[in-house]
């Protein structure tokens, strides 16, 4: 079994927007290095000053170096039938795989990460960065942050790992059914092993325990692992994978509950890598207030978190359709409801559909009675129901409560709980904030599965 121990220097941290400036490959037979390859590469782009200061490789040094495409055939031959080994293997592999693809070669080979292997075979070290780990193991590193020096140190580390691998971790990792090498370098496999194949919400956390991404899943383990497949070379993906140190999760009874919990948690924790659900903010609300003359006025306005809305909408059209319904059913003034603005009297007054509140002909007290009836009517037409479904275990069932058109909360109840006792139900459910996105999920589910819906 031959290993290709690889290290590269680059112009930046992600393959799709940066180039390779130097590559070193040491072919290792499991005991010693049997072949060495090393060359500077012209990256066909400027080397940033901070990269030059780190590696010592300047634009002048690579000006006359070969292009990667000119070396691609030789590099491919050195790698394609061997086990690709590197310290943080997915970084080096992503660059070389990308560059080979650009040159017409597709590299498919098994990988070993000496970071991950060192954590297993040589546990207990404070740091597993190449420099600090080599210092702790008394491995001499000459020419640090150059491909040749780092590859030589990694080859010595590989020999040590092979010699110390009493529990056969290397062979287990190379097993064709093992997905371990696809995992981020700082995420222990034990974190994945404990995740169940059930619905729920998962949380990726960084080294300090800060949540950097939240997702939902029908099958937690499958969904979490899917993040680590593929060979995306974008900056965002590379940085994202580097920052994952732990995975936490919360099991949900159903996929619908996972959808809802994900939306709530993203709004609560606002992780850097979640974008889509951050855009699902309420846009408009129906509000009531009393003006200086004492008239209660209904109106559509942009959604305001600090003021309680009678109802909320994602589009102005939905809001105005509901408002016009209330105006028609309860003989309200279109001008006092801000539907008309530029007339002294509303058109409803001319047509006998307004009692003249807009002109002061109807008293505020008389008008406000109808506004109050309109608000009561609105509450009566807004749905109140519970959605019952399977729970996390056989002796419980999940329950979601919608009250007067707003999501109240969800949780788990006994099959003997009387769902019509709303106060009792509320006492055992976890309240959550309501918004149109969550209501849309619940309403669609209720329409699709009417047998799970119980009117209250």
From TrEMBL:
PROSITE patterns noted in UniProt: GIY_YIG
Gene3D superfamilies documented for this protein: GIY-YIG endonuclease, Ribonuclease H-like superfamily/Ribonuclease H
Superkingdom of the organism of origin: Bacteria
Pfam family, one: RNase_T
Residue ranges of domain GIY-YIG in the record: 197-275
A GO molecular-function annotation: DNA-directed DNA polymerase activity
InterPro entries: DnaQ (IPR006054), GIY-YIG_endonuc (IPR000305), GIY-YIG_endonuc_sf (IPR035901), GIY-YIG_UvrC_Cho (IPR047296), Ribonucl_H (IPR013520), RNaseH-like_sf (IPR012337), RNaseH_sf (IPR036397), UvrABC_protein_C (IPR050066)
Keywords annotated in UniProt: DNA damage, DNA excision, DNA repair, Excision nuclease, Hydrolase, SOS response
Listed CDD domains: DEDDh (cd06127), GIY-YIG_UvrC_Cho (cd10434)
Key word Oxidoreductase present: no
Cellular component aspect of the GO annotation: excinuclease repair complex
GO biological process, one term: DNA replication
Record's subunit section: DNA polymerase III contains a core (composed of alpha, epsilon and theta chains) that associates with a tau subunit. This core dimerizes to form the POLIII' complex. PolIII' associates with the gamma complex (composed of gamma, delta, delta', psi and chi chains) and with the beta chain to form the complete DNA polymerase III complex.
PANTHER family noted in UniProt: EXCINUCLEASE CHO, UVRC/OXIDOREDUCTASE
Biological function: DNA polymerase III is a complex, multichain enzyme responsible for most of the replicative synthesis in bacteria. The epsilon subunit contain the editing function and is a proofreading 3'-5' exonuclease.
Annotated protein name in UniProt: Excinuclease cho
